[in-house]
């Protein structure tokens, strides 16, 4: 009996012990989680551009040894440096949304300075124009930095408005970038140290506040894409008009359609190059190649147009068939063959002949773009075709002025000659401003945006609205519901008795 009581007591004790252990286990995990969450909230969050074990090595995130990890240095609001702060890295670039992502820069002698505050904010000091003209350096004392009466210009970026990273540059590359004013164009850095053959600097990419946004941001990122979209629609309309109406599908009409398509593709490729934020979805060097290839092809087609006009006016037999598919094929071999050969040369020169410093100078968000050597190979033939087209214009103008009597075909040839001259003028001016926009002057770039926006409407006026016979055919097809006549001899023979030129 005593033995049974002892077993019963032991069994009850065991059950109570197990219940107590279970209760302790259930209560321990939430408490630990709460404690962990509380500790995590107490940590200061610092946005880091690369992973914890990486730093920028010549603008590329590179794995480094633990001794080379980035260690932030904090400053409190009283101006004390090397403040002890418990922090936590948050990896990734800042999510700027609709605001502009802008890199700002500090090195020795630069007009900017970065200070990481104890609450995780990044303070950016800027030198005023008056201080810059006086030659003052950005060496503020603690009293100047935090005294309201002596406070310099600065702006504080919160944790979600910036990312910070250490960058390691080779000394010779760093000196080369300084000579090119590279840092002031791209980003904000703070000089940290110099070890061996490398210069270590601190990089920060920030989201501009609405009141600090670049004055040209609206024109670059909003108005410019809208202009590109309008130009694409207008060029597509020109191509449709000359392609749909059968009597306009002569050699001149086919060339006009092809030029419109080439310019439309160039506008689309340039539209891709505008949005530099989408680096994970597009290849900017591919967009560059398509852009320059399309412009070069458009000028070669314009050169073929000028040659056709020049040769036709010099011919004694002006009663030539307007629709000539073989001539278009011959011109196609000339244009696409020349454009493809020059494009291959430009791409080969960029990848194998251009120097690395020039390639890195033209980086867009760590992606390569066509350098100066490749651009020169693309643009030099364009300059040559413009000179040849000017020769065609001058010699043809002399032939036109010598004639006193014009037949209907001569009137159409004269209208084509005027259209060629106007297209040459518009495309040449736009190309010249495109070349000037490469000089990195804001005014020239904004002027190119405006000129490029005017190119589409001007070509619509030259090729459609100004051409009386084109508007006549459009009225007959659209307003009077008459199907366009398909004639191998062109509209000048089909509407022989109409005054449409």
From TrEMBL:
One of its GO terms (cellular component) is membrane. GO terms for molecular function: G protein-coupled receptor activity. It is found in: Membrane. GO terms for biological process: cell surface receptor signaling pathway. Keywords: Membrane, Signal, Transmembrane, Transmembrane helix. Gene3D superfamilies: Rhodopsin 7-helix transmembrane proteins. Coiled coil: none annotated. The chain crosses the membrane at residues 226-244, 251-269, 289-310, 331-352, 372-394, 415-433, 445-465. Residues 1-25 form the signal peptide. PROSITE patterns: G_PROTEIN_RECEP_F2_4 (PS50261). Residues 220-467 form the G-protein coupled receptors family 2 profile domain. It is a multi-pass membrane protein. This is G-protein coupled receptors family 2 profile 2 domain-containing protein. It comes from Glossina brevipalpis.
């Amino acid at each position: 009996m005593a033995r049974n009581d002892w077993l019963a007591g032991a069994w009850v004790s065991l059950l109570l012990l197990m219940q107590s252990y279970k209760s302790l286990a259930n209560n321990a995990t939430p408490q630990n989680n709460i404690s962990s969450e509380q500790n995590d909230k107490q940590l200061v969050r610092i946005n880091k551009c690369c992973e914890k074990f990486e730093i920028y090595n010549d603008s590329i995130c590179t794995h480094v040894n633990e001794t080379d990890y980035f260690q932030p240095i904090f400053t409190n609001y009283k101006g004390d440096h090397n403040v002890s702060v418990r922090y936590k890295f948050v990896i990734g670039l800042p999510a700027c949304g609709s605001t502009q992502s802008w890199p700002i820069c500090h090195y020795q002698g630069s007009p900017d300075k970065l200070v990481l505050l104890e609450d995780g904010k990044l303070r950016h000091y800027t030198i005023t124009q008056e201080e810059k003209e006086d030659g003052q350096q950005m060496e503020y004392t603690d009293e100047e930095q935090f005294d309201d009466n002596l406070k310099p210009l600065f702006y504080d970026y919160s944790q979600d408005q910036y990312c910070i990273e250490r960058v390691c540059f080779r000394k010779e590359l760093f000196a080369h970038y300084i000579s090119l004013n590279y840092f002031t164009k791209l980003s904000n850095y703070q000089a940290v140290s110099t070890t061996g053959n490398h210069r270590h600097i601190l990089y920060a990419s920030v989201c501009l506040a609405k009141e600090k946004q670049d004055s040209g941001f609206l024109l670059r990122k909003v108005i410019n894409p809208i202009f590109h979209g309008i130009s694409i629609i207008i060029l597509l309309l020109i191509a449709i008009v000359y392609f749909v109406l059968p009597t306009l599908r002569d050699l001149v009409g086919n060339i006009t359609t092809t030029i419109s398509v080439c310019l439309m593709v160039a506008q689309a490729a340039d539209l891709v190059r505008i949005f530099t934020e989408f680096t994970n979805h597009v290849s900017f060097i591919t967009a560059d190649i398509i852009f320059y290839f399309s412009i070069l092809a458009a000028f070669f087609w314009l050169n073929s147009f000028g040659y056709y006009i020049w040769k036709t006016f010099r011919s004694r037999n002006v009663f030539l068939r307007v629709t000539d598919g073989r001539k278009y094929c011959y011109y196609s071999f000339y244009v696409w063959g020349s454009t493809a050969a020059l494009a291959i040369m430009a791409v080969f020169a960029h990848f194998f002949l251009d120097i690395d410093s020039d390639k890195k100078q033209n980086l867009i968000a760590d992606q390569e773009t066509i350098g100066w050597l490749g651009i020169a190979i693309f643009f030099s033939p364009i300059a040559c075709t413009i000179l040849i087209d000017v020769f065609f214009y001058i010699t043809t103008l002399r032939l036109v002025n010598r004639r006193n009597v014009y037949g209907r075909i001569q009137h159409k040839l004269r209208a084509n000659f005027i259209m060629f001259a106007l297209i040459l003028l518009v495309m040449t001016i736009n190309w010249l401003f495109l070349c000037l926009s490469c000089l990195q002057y804001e005014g020239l770039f904004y002027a190119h945006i405006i000129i490029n926006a005017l190119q589409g409407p001007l070509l619509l006026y030259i090729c459609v609205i100004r051409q009386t016979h084109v508007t006549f055919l459009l009225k007959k097809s659209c307003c009077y519901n008459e199907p366009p006549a398909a004639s191998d001899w062109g509209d000048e023979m089909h509407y022989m008795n109409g005054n449409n030129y």
